[in-house]
Amino acid sequence: MSSYFFSDTLVANSMSVLGMGKKPTYNEGDVKSAYRKACAKYHPDRNGAASTCMMQAINVARDYLLKTLEFSDSVINKHATNEKQADDFGGDLYAVIMALIDIEGINLTMAGSWLWIDGDTKPHSKLLGKSGLGCQWNKKKMNWSYRPAGVAKSRSRGGYSMDKIKNTFGSSTIVKGEGRKAISN
């Protein structure tokens, strides 16, 4: 029997990815409705290859919230998010992906609801940093990461390796290809 990892931070981030921020509690129907709206907004057929990363984040968020509901009282309380953060998270993440998608030499990986950026990032550090797109350099992982300001951050204090993050939360990487359309899982 596999174990399932529950975290208020992951619930808040998952709710933010799906744009859930108007009510204090949510049920399965609310999660499914928010998922459908997010899919319609960010589907790759409408927005190109960059949306594939966004759809991966949306799918992970939905799966996590539905699994959380399965083991709870069928209601999720609104945790560490507010309406503005929840409404802006998907748009902010999508804007960062679009700004980075065509830069040669960097790789974008969605792991859970976080975007990880690696490769030849040094020439682009001003663009990536706090005065640019708002990404944060992670010394231990030697990668940049993005999560919108105000969204709950991990409590692991850097204890997870990138492999553990990818295995625990699922990941999707945009790799070099014709217009970066090739996706690797």
| N/C terminus separation | 24 Å
What integer is the average pLDDT? 74
Question: Which oligomeric state applies?
Answer: single chain
The helix fraction, in percent, is 40-55%
* Overall 3D shape: globular
Class by alpha and beta content: alpha+beta
Strand content: 15-25%
Radius of gyration: 16 Å
Uncertain residue ranges: 1-6, 79-87, 176-185
What is the makeup of the main sheet?
A: 6 strands, antiparallel
Sheet with most strands: strand arrangement = 5-6-4-3-7-8
Order of helices and strands: HEHHHEHEEHEEHEE
Count of runs of 4 or more consecutive helical residues = 7
How many domains in all? Answer: 1
Number of strands: 8
Give an account of the 3D structure:
- The chain has one domain (8-184).
- The two termini are 24 Å apart.
- Strands 5-6-4-3-7-8 form a 6-stranded antiparallel sheet, sandwiched between helices. Strands 1-2 form a two-stranded antiparallel ribbon.
- Mean pLDDT is 74; it is low at 1-6, 79-87 and 176-185.
- 43% of the residues lie in helices and 16% in strands.
- It contains 7 helices and 8 strands, in the order H-E-H-H-H-E-H-E-E-H-E-E-H-E-E.
- With 185 residues, the chain is an alpha+beta fold.
